[in-house]
Write a structure and sequence with these properties.
70% strand; mainly beta; 5-stranded antiparallel beta sheet
């Protein structure tokens, strides 16, 4: 299952994304990992990404499940 995420820094900046697959917590750090799947002419291209968040600098982190598309 993949997730949508959104977080807001204490300075007011808001960020969000999708295709979140894994969440790792270590002390005051949250590591978000995911993969974006981009269709190409012949197959699919995978772009793996990592986002590191310092919990001391954010107001909130919201994570919601994404709806799966049935084929």
């Amino acid at each position: 299952m993949r997730y949508f995420y959104e977080y807001k820094y204490k300075n007011g900046s808001k960020f969000g994304g999708h295709n979140l697959e894994n969440i790792i917590t270590k002390e005051n750090i949250i590591i978000l990992k995911g993969v974006d799947i981009m269709p190409t002419y012949y197959d699919e291209k995978y772009h793996h990404w990592t986002q590191t968040i310092d919990t001391n600098k954010i107001e909130y982190l919201k994570i919601e499940p994404m709806k799966e598309v049935e084929e």
